[in-house]
Specification:
The chain has helices at about 5-30, 35-40, 50-55, 65-75, 90-125, 130-140, 145-160, 175-180, 180-205, 210-215, 220-240, 240-260, 265-275, 280-305. By secondary structure, it is an all-alpha fold. It is found in: Cell membrane.
Length: about 325
């Protein structure tokens, strides 16, 4: 498939997916019990005139389809609406909080890729006791939820040892890196175990392949065999897990940000959901869906570069 055809097809798929996701996100909030008006009144009684004014301000009395189409049109123009809880534009809230979340996800992703690939490679190449140790370690990592890891890391490294802050996002880039170290590790722990296992399985499969046997029979040094014929050929399988890794990071960041009191969009989403802040929840949910689709598109574009046997629009199944 040519690049142009692939790009047009994926753009159409992403547009349809975003439209479907927008309808689900918009409708799901209205299916939940309660209403924005009840939150704004904070349990106080209100006259019919005051309640009507609130409903008119937020268009709560309009038919569902009318509200959805108005909201969709505003979103297409970059207008995310006005937060009911914070009484400010949602775009301003996102601009203030999104960089912190993206930095946290980026730090976690670096930890996942470096440690996960390294452990998987060591386990596959060395085997024996090393392989068993890595399997046990990754089993523990995979079995530890992010919020549990966050509590354990806080208790040990923040409260007991005092090496890292127990919460907050910090001020300035270096201070942010220091504050986000423990949250990044808590967010990455599960995915390190998953990526290490995928890498190990892919490399073991590559080690048993015919071209590796031929390379060894020709006297190619073992390090070169591992680097060029085993590790490189396994990257296609490993890369297909990229979408799953990023989607997990996007979801789990809500729990980690809440545990560490980080002012990112994850914590904002949790607070906005509990207060029925419709515009904020809807905007963040759509951003998460869009980020997930962008990551999957990047993975599809990188796969042919990593493994020439893969063409645009096709993916190898992971081991």
């Amino acid at each position: 498939m040519s690049f142009t055809k692939f790009a047009v097809r994926r753009l159409a798929e992403m547009t349809v997916t975003l439209l479907c996701a927008s309808f689900v996100v918009f409708g799901a909030m209205y299916l939940a019990p309660g209403s924005p008006a009840s939150f704004l009144l904070a349990g106080r009684s209100a006259s019919p005139e005051a309640l009507a004014a609130i409903n008119a301000q937020y268009h709560l009395d309009d038919p569902f389809l009318v509200r959805y189409l108005r909201w969709l049109g505003d979103m297409a123009q970059g207008d995310f609406g006005r937060s009911i809880t914070y009484r400010t534009d949602v775009s301003r809230l996102l601009a203030d909080r999104l960089p912190t979340t993206l930095l946290l996800i980026a730090m976690s992703l670096v930890v996942v890729v470096v440690v996960g690939l390294l452990l998987g490679r060591i386990a596959a190449v060395r085997g024996g006791a090393t392989d068993s140790t890595v399997l046990v370690t990754t089993t523990f990592a995979v079995g530890t939820p992010s919020f549990v890891a966050a509590v354990l890391l806080q208790a040990l490294f923040a409260v007991k040892l005092g090496w890292f802050p127990s919460g907050g996002a910090g001020d300035g880039f270096l201070d942010q890196l220091w504050h986000l170290t423990l949250p990044a590790i808590a967010l990455a722990l599960y995915l390190i175990g998953m990526l290490a296992r995928v890498t190990r399985s892919a490399m073991l499969e590559a080690l048993d392949s015919e071209h590796v046997t031929v390379a060894r029979s020709r006297g190619v040094p073992e390090r070169q065999v591992i680097r060029r014929h085993v590790f490189r050929n396994s990257l296609g399988t490993v890369l297909t897990t990229g979408g799953l890794i990023v989607s997990t990071l996007l979801v789990c960041t809500i729990l980690v940000e809440t545990a560490f009191s980080i002012g990112g969009i994850g914590q904002l989403l949790e607070l906005s959901t509990s207060t029925k802040d419709f515009p904020t929840v809807q905007a963040i949910s759509l951003i998460i869906v869009a980020l997930f689709m962008i990551v999957n598109l990047i993975v599809d574009l990188l796969l042919p570069l990593v493994d020439p046997r893969i063409t645009l629009g096709s993916r190898r199944s992971s081991a």
